[in-house]
Amino acid sequence: MNYSEIMVRYGELSTKGKNRKDFIRQLGQNVRQSLQEFENLEIKAQHDRLHVTLNGEPDDAVIKRLSGVFGIENVSPSVKVEKDVAVIKQTAAAMMQEQFVPGMTFKINTRRQDHDFEYDTNQLNDMVGGYVLEKVPGIKVQMKKPDVILRVEVRLNGVFLSSEIIEGAGGLPVGTGGRAVMMLSGGIDSPVASYLAMKRGVKLDMVHFFSPPYTSYQALAKAKELTGKVANFGGDIQFIQVPFRKIQEEIKEKVPEGYLMTIQRRMMLRITAAIAEARHTKGIFTGESLGQVASQTLESMMAINDVTTMPVLRPLVSMDKDEIIKIAEKIDTYDLSILPFEDCCTIFTPPAPKTRPDLEKSRNFEKLIDVDALVKEAVDGIEIVNIKPNETFLNKQEDVFAELL
Ligand code: ATP
Ligand code: MG
């Protein structure tokens, strides 16, 4: 079929009374941004739908992009024809013929915006349905749950036929839920948590701790490249890299081994909260999941969370690893996440970190380091880069890749 437009149906936002205008404006903006590279498209956001006129651009590529934009319930590619019953009938029959498999059932569902059109919806259903029955041998009409519903919309500017509904990403348009910072490592979990935060409309800035020379340039590049993948779902992302080496060395030197991990995490969270506040964002997201590792028990979370009153949100909190991996595969971050570049935390993780750290002890051990000065130095040392959807950073020539291939 030679499609002329993609019709986009809004998700949940159609139920949000007073915020509706903002939602539609934001969704329109996000759709425009994600379709930037297709120069001939015309995008028009209306109160109940958005129409993307293809003007010759490839429908499959445009649909693929749209399917990653939050706030879209589903999309339907449609063919626009003149308001001429003969043409409508022929197009309908051609569409059904293309999709026909033996035993297929269908019905016609007509909507009429143009009430001056010479036939009403019942007449059109009958005429078009009858013609399809005649031209596509073996096809049957079924009113209840047919295999295919052929939608015919008589609008003022033409008649639109569509028969496919392709599921969208759901959720809310990114940007309608405010701004937060995401603690992004190079692992499997935090990119998935980022995706889920964005799904609820939150615009993210990434905070990433790195620790050269203990962690390599490639580990940093991996976190940036993961950010590029995540940016596919909500546009450009600010990536904030925080130098963490000095803090880790201080902690390692002064804090008892059982509390190394807890104190490191307290410092990370404290610095992230300082960055979040300075940027006027309203929360912190992490990729933690309850019970997954030592730092992710309730006791640990309490001991770590103690350093800030800012909301710390954990979209993966009750997910199993295999559920998380499924999403990682779907959003195309999994293969990157499992590349073996060392993370700053693994290097300084003691063989037996406390799984139930004590809050008072955590507070006391922390007094062994100069918290304020270290936080200030780290915050002063941040570097910020803007990362575009699908931007790449890893040096694919390096030995580790050669070995992996
Ligand atoms: P992930 O797969 O996201 O690395 P994980 O299961 O390996 O998670 P941890 O390494 O304990 O768990 O990290 C828990 C969370 O702490 C991460 O999901 C992330 O939000 C944050 N975090 C860990 N390391 C870093 C880092 N280097 N920079 C920023 N945030 C980090
Ligand atoms: Mg990790």
TrEMBL record:
ATP binds at residues 183-184, 208-209, 265, 287, 296. Coiled coil: none annotated. PROSITE patterns: THUMP. Residues 60-165 form the THUMP domain. Gene3D superfamilies: 3.30.2130.30, HUPs (3.40.50.620). InterPro entries: Rossmann-like_a/b/a_fold, ThiI_AANH, ThiI_fer, ThiI_N, THUMP_dom, THUMP_ThiI, tRNA_STrfase, tRNA_sulfurtransferase_ThiI. Pathway: Cofactor biosynthesis; thiamine diphosphate biosynthesis. Catalyzes the ATP-dependent transfer of a sulfur to tRNA to produce 4-thiouridine in position 8 of tRNAs, which functions as a near-UV photosensor. Also catalyzes the transfer of sulfur to the sulfur carrier protein ThiS, forming ThiS-thiocarboxylate. This is a step in the synthesis of thiazole, in the thiamine biosynthesis pathway. The sulfur is donated as persulfide by IscS. Belongs to the ThiI family. This is Probable tRNA sulfurtransferase. The gene is thiI.
